[in-house]
Amino acid sequence: MRAFVTGAAGFIGSTLVDKLLEQGHAVVGYDNLATGRREFIANALRSSKFEFIEADVLDATCLNENVRGAEIVFHLSANADVRFGIEHPRKDLDQNTIATFNVLEAMRTNGVKTIAFSSTGSVYGETEVIPTPEDAPFPMQTSLYGASKLAGEGLIAAYAEGFGMRGFIFRFVSILGERYTHGHVFDFVQKLAADPSTLHILGNGLQRKSYLHVDDCVEAMLTAVERADAKINIFNLGTDEYCEVKESARWIADRLGLAPRFTYAGGDRGWIGDVPFIFLDTRRIRALGWQPKRSIRQSVELTVDWLKANEWVFSLRGAH
Amino acid sequence: MRAFVTGAAGFIGSTLVDKLLEQGHAVVGYDNLATGRREFIANALRSSKFEFIEADVLDATCLNENVRGAEIVFHLSANADVRFGIEHPRKDLDQNTIATFNVLEAMRTNGVKTIAFSSTGSVYGETEVIPTPEDAPFPMQTSLYGASKLAGEGLIAAYAEGFGMRGFIFRFVSILGERYTHGHVFDFVQKLAADPSTLHILGNGLQRKSYLHVDDCVEAMLTAVERADAKINIFNLGTDEYCEVKESARWIADRLGLAPRFTYAGGDRGWIGDVPFIFLDTRRIRALGWQPKRSIRQSVELTVDWLKANEWVFSLRGAH
Lengths: 320, 320
Prior knowledge:
Two copies of one chain form a homodimer. Chain A has two domains: 2-175 and 211-237, NAD(P)-binding Rossmann-like Domain (Rossmann fold, 3-Layer(aba) Sandwich); 180-209 and 241-315, UDP-galactose 4-epimerase, domain 1 (Alpha-Beta Complex). The longest helix of chain A has 22 residues, at 89-110. In chain A, strands 3-2-1-4-5-6-11 form a seven-stranded parallel beta sheet, sandwiched between helices. A two-stranded parallel ribbon of chain A has the order 7-10. A two-stranded parallel sheet of chain A has the order 8-13. Chain A is built from ten helices and 13 strands. With 320 residues, chain A is an alpha/beta fold. Chains A and B meet through helix 4 and helix 5 of A and helix 4 and helix 5 of B.
């Protein structure tokens, strides 16, 4: 199989690239290295089956040229920054919606028929159905990030219908693990490095969130691509658990050997558009034979370990 | 009230403008006259309370300048061309999704807090729940038009959450009535003018569709804006009926005094992405006290009468 991966030097993208190469596939990786890291594809770059294109998904011409010949596109590049959307509303539109359009157009132009897309559980907004199945009631968006991913999902479905493509849409919970460079574990580890005595938590700490390890995530995607064959295949990806934010804060502190005092910003959500309870129904992907190998706690701990061993990531441009 | 109306010279937009002026409101109409017609705002232009800006919603600077001072934005400009989406995939993205983003940004910049948006029943795709309520199961898009409108809805909800706006989202069935310039009644009247003996119908004629008269549509929008007060207010707009395509073809022929032979292209849908059965549950808008004054048959007949009296519309650029 010849795979084209956008966001190939990112957290999930680079993990997928490694896995695809390990399975013997040829991979073209595409990344503008704005948040992706050359370090993450260091292994891949040593493979003769890997080709890397440093370019932007908003450069439609370059995308068109490089998608040519692929059998499948894994479209993982994104502005994955759900929290800061309202500070730069155009970013989600450009990097998620318009970029997805560009990818689909490049595929159409080149006759590439299969796309796998990293969507998000955020598309469910503040749904009342928890755990949330893929066919939950028509959701109301609460973030520009969710809205931009929903738009991407819609484009993929319409292209599949209009141009005979096949789509795999994955609605992720938050992903943890090696190469993780933003999110609450990152923030907490960074804050505790600066002040080990106190940890300030956004919201009241009672927000309930779900997480999945990146290896489990990549395995789920590859399982779906191999075993599902509808025109549009939508899968929630997550574990069968959730945890409170203050609970994961405790695991992080414990793993670092610290006992900070927790302080809380208060309120039932961490920021505008935050969803206080995210828990996805994952029976559909489990029915294909996949199951996660790591618990949320293990995933948090593995992430802490990796961040401790890779403190350079805290100095990355755009990291937070 | 000072209202800003995009697509002000279009079919629904100009009808809304007339109604707003009749109610004594000040109106700024914005239209690039690509498919809108100066004829449709001839009355409005005689009012001292109406100001017309001939410009494009993709011109963000011009939009920003003119939205200033509005209390409510009715965003009706769109590529409303559901059938030909796959011939020019970028059009729906530009004119529906990005245009809606531009309108929201102009509102944010100018502190305008209320938007009313013409979405579409097409966002439900081929739902299995019929009549379809607003909280139907998470739908799968089947057209670029539906996908682009869904994206617009998502943007509005995210802006409402992020920036303290209020949104009214109207999911229309097909609208009929005076100033109607595209759609199946237009096509059938045009075909019968060319050849009164035969009418060729796309699909098998058994597609079941819903229609609403433009005056009923505008009245529903204004009722909702006046009486609903959630952050995001979503309403299906339609009648409590549907009809088969061949049934409406018969009404059209009868109204024209013709008895053509019907021929059928065959298949259960008229084109790629066509939805064979559209029927919306409108209990939510009815609960506000609104109800349509015209049946589907009456709306079809009034549309035929208007087209006969205004044959110039058949020579419009882009009309079909």
